[in-house]
Amino acid sequence: MQMSELLTHLDNLRETHLPQIRSLLDAVVAEESPEDSSLAKMCTYHMDTGGKRLRALLPLAVGEALGVEPEKLVPFGAACEMLHNATLVHDDLQDGDRVRRGKPTIWVEFGEARAINLGDAMFYWALLILMRMDCDIERREALSKRLLSESLRVIDGQDREFLLKDLKTPTIEDYFAMVEGKTSGLFALPVAGAAEFCGAPAEVVKALEASAGHLGVLFQIQDDVLDLYADKGREHVGTDICEGKISALVVHFLANAAAAERDWLRGVLEAERDAVSHDDIDRAARAFREVGSLQFALDEIERRRALACDAPIFADYPDLKALLNAMADIFLEPISPLLDASA
């Protein structure tokens, strides 16, 4: 399966099943909320911002690769999508992001305290959506445990991101530990969870967990690169620098740059968001190239892709292998010119 084929396939799944997924999301929120709930109204506002709905569609695609009708995975896809959006609501608040897909974020529109409440509620709604799955109790219990475990993993990763800022010289191992929680969990859940629901052998589920973990790291590193060297759809280029985030680029730079350059970057990262200038961002982009931090990030992306897609067990599951490769292509498309230039 090529990237274009997967994109077409996801579009078909989106056209056929996204209305069902959204209907289920809305139904659970309405049925599990008091009448005239402000939380329900905020949830509708947030979900109406749109998005690719990748976490909703991935379980359906995995199911098809394993010979299971996608219809059966609609509730699981809806639960994954609700969980993902819960993290976005909290993430926007914690990062200070004011705009998401052209609309004010929840905390900007409704206030910080209410954004916390909505994000919390969405975690619980995700679990309640999962209860709608048409399967035996044992399988539903296993998926519920997986959803809860991955939720905790994501929260731990998010917390590690803040702790990274307090380290004078964070290591790449510190960075990976953060990303493998914050980002990888939201890919492991829909991919490995769908395989578990479909009755795939335990070793296949385990391999998919590992592959999704590597894809999560790959996705986060490309996101780090995209923020500084391409259009990420935010207010301006270099938002992560303004927020003081510790990216793969930053970690490598702090370990390899000259002392004066390291001190300069730490000063920028510790500054108030509005105090970071366009010149600071341009200088960081140049410095990351000169020290080799950008090349390190691109090399790590390629390494993670190989780890994600080339596990020997997938030789017996060509449709899964093709799906993983196409997912990697989709994730990396925004920075493909950089990858091509570095090859």
UniProtKB/TrEMBL annotation:
<dbReference type="InterPro" id="IPR008949">
    <property type="entry name" value="Isoprenoid_synthase_dom_sf"/>
</dbReference>
<keyword id="KW-0460">Magnesium</keyword>
<dbReference type="Pfam" id="PF00348">
    <property type="entry name" value="polyprenyl_synt"/>
</dbReference>
<protein>
    <recommendedName>
        <fullName>Polyprenyl synthetase family protein</fullName>
    </recommendedName>
</protein>
<dbReference type="InterPro" id="IPR000092">
    <property type="entry name" value="Polyprenyl_synt"/>
</dbReference>
<dbReference type="InterPro" id="IPR033749">
    <property type="entry name" value="Polyprenyl_synt_CS"/>
</dbReference>
<dbReference type="GO" id="GO:0046872">
    <property type="term" value="F:metal ion binding"/>
</dbReference>
<comment type="similarity">
    <text>Belongs to the FPP/GGPP synthase family.</text>
</comment>
<dbReference type="GO" id="GO:0004659">
    <property type="term" value="F:prenyltransferase activity"/>
</dbReference>
<dbReference type="GO" id="GO:0008299">
    <property type="term" value="P:isoprenoid biosynthetic process"/>
</dbReference>
<keyword id="KW-0808">Transferase</keyword>
<keyword id="KW-0479">Metal-binding</keyword>
